[in-house]
Amino acid sequence: MIKNKNPLILAYHSISDTRKDTLAVSVQNFEQQLAWLKKNNYQSLSLKDLQNASSKNKIVVITFDDGYRDNYHVALPILIKYGFKATIFITADFTGTEHIFWWDKNKIGKYGDEEDFKLLTWDQVNEMIGYGIEFGSHTKKHKLLPDISEKEARIEIEDSKSKISSMIGSDVSSFCYPAGRLNDSIINMVSQAGYQCGVITPPVRGIPKSIFTIRRVGIYYGTSFFKFKIKTKSIFQNIIELAKRQKYLK
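-> structure tokens emitted (250 positions)
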């Protein structure tokens, strides 16, 4: 259970100066954001550490979805520089391969080279763990869980946990729903699989807040420094959440 009631949880994907698509944040912007967080006395925790954190300090949890290789080459040195941790959600079957996600294939040549869209290797994953990086599950193959059978969904949720655990030599406690797609049944599967928490971004209308539907703030290519600072404010997060609920209720 999260004891700190208002942690700032940020959701990134790629940190790169060579990728130019929506999911990529430039090196300069990422470092500027971390420097600002450091200057404003945010304490950095992983999602796993957050579960038992009782600190009254301002807490930030930096998360990355999909497990792009630039998380190792580009993001990690900046995280180390500022003494920050992170949680990275990886796909169990694609990590350590030359796989490129289907939504990235048509970006090659237009928004970056093929290398820009490749995923982490297991050697990189295990090296990053030594720097305080947590790895969570983003399923086996990034399938949209509500769109497949219950049996397939359970395999995506349960087998990814066991495979990642075996590859890193420790338990996997955090889960991220691909594309933020979920429902009550999927949430129950995640809980039953033994995960300690789950995250979504953006908030899903009609899904109540819980340890398995932790809200995050998405940071993207078009997020200016001004927008970033606005997004870190709890009042902004509350307004967005309220707007989502009202739209759902109408």
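Confidence is low (pLDDT under 50) at residues 244-250.
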